[in-house]
Structure formats: structure tokens, C-alpha cells
Amino acid sequence: MALLDWIAPESGLRVEGEGVFLRPARNADFEAWRELRAASRDFLQPWEPTWPADDLSRAAFRRRLTAYARDREAGTAYPFFVFRSSDEALTGGITLSNVRRGVAQMGSVGYWCGQAFARQGQTLAAVRALTLFSFRTLALHRLEAACLPTNEPSRKLLSRAGFAEEGYAKAYLKINGVWRDHVLFGLVSPLRAALEPDQGVSV
Predict the structure, then answer these.
(1) What φ, ψ does residue 138 adopt, rounded to 5°?
(2) Smallest Cα–Cα separation from 117: which of 141, 90, 136, 137?
(3) CA-closest candidate to residue 167, choices 151, 153, 193, 147
(4) What span, in angstroms and rounded, lies between the C-alpha atoms of 84 and 95?
(5) Half-sphere exposure of 73 (CA within 13 A, CB side)
(6) Is the Cβ–Cβ distance between 175 and 49 less than 8 Å?
(7) How does strand 178-188 pair with strand 164-175?
(8) Is 4 a residue whose pLDDT tops 50?
(9) CA triple 141-142-143, angle to 5 deg
(10) pTM (2 decimals)?
(11) Where is the N-acetyltransferase domain (predicted)?
């Protein structure tokens, strides 16, 4: 798939969820994305990497689209915007990144939600939709996620989405300019697990 196909509406990739749908970002999404991010800056910044000075510019958005397309073509990441189904309002974003094949068959889930849409269930629905996409469409075996220990809403969200808390990583990611510890979560595909032979049984 060419870069322009990925950026254009004709790309057709769309993932349905409960009350939401996920699709790749388009040039036409810029204004809604900029307004949502700008209005949510103080809400989001404590949980994200430091924003570049030009982060909300059209040029930066275009660079994002190009990077998104490149990652998708390489099969290493699947970035989506999240939209509310009832009115197609942009509510946030979600990405399956660091996709590894071979003996791993796994990827990492990350997400953000605009402040106006927080605690309304759209992000949970998006995580569940991306989980099904990862396991059913991409045939991955395992998903991982991480959040700051103090981010209790995110910890609860991941638990409700089926992820299990698995560990604690020191200085795991640089968030808002500081290397921060993270709680690690994991989820193994029930679809793949059902196909695995029983342990200790010769096949």
C-alpha cells in the first residue's frame, strides 16, 4: 500500500467497537485533532512525552501522517484515531506499536483521550476493539501495555479490558521530560492459546 493510499480516505481500514470506531488519521482530521489536543494539553501532558514546540502545527501533523503510513506499511505499528460512532466526534487516539513477529508475535498498546471525553467509556471500547483487531486480524499472540503507577484510571481501564498486571519497570519511559517508573500489563490471546497443544503432550 502506497503512502498516499494510507493517508487518503480510500484506504478503507476501519475497526468497529462498542460505540466507537477506529480508523487511520487523515489530512482532513487536522483541525479537530489540533483543537482536541490543545484543549486537553494540561490534562494529557503529565502522562505523555514532552510535546515539541511545533507539535500542534499542520507541518507536524503531516509528519505524523507520513510516519504513521511508513510504520503501517512495514507492519511495525498500527496507529488509529478514535471516533464516537453516534456523531463521529474525534475522542482520542490509540496505537498498536512495536509489533514483533517471529517467535514473539506481540505488540504494545498505547492510547490517549481528550479531556472532554474522559471517563465516558470510549477509550475502554477502543482498547477492546484494538485487542480484537490485534488477535483476529493480525493473529498476534500477546499484547503489552504500561502506565505510570499514579495513573489509576489507566490501570483500571487496562484491567477492565482484560490485561493483567505483570510487573514494575524502573525508569521505563521518559514522560514529560523525566524518566518514570511504569506498571507493566500483559494479555495473551485466548484465540491463539486455544490452538496451542497441551503442555507435556506429544503431538
Answers:
(1) -90, -10
(2) 90
(3) 147
(4) 17
(5) 14
(6) yes
(7) antiparallel
(8) no
(9) 140
(10) 0.88
(11) 20-190
Residue type, 187: L
Distance CA 154, CA 65 (A): 26
What's the alpha-carbon Rg for the chain, to the nearest Å?
17
Which residue carries 506498571 as its cell? Answer: 183
Residue labelled with grid coordinates 487518503 = 8
CA–CA separation, 70 and 146 (whole Å): 24
136 DSSP assignment:
I
- Asked whether 117 and 172 are in contact (CB, 8 A), the reply is no
Give the distance from CA 1 to its chain's centroid. Answer: 21
Residue 66 corresponds to which cell in the numbers above? Answer: 507520513
Give the mean pLDDT of 52-72. 96
Q: How many angstroms separate the first and last alpha carbons of the chain?
A: 39
State the residue for C-alpha cell 487511520.
Answer: 24
Strands (E), 55-141: 78-84, 90-100, 106-113
Residue 77 CA to residue 95 CA, distance in Å, equals 7
Question: What confidence tens digit (pLDDT) does each residue in 135-159 have?
Answer: 999 999 999 999 999 999 999 999 9
Q: C-alpha angle 25/94/105, rounded to 5°? A: 110
Cα–Cα–Cα angle for 7, 132, 28, rounded to 5 degrees: 20
Query: Each residue of 75-86: b (16+ CB within 10 Å) or e?
Result: eebbbbbbbbee
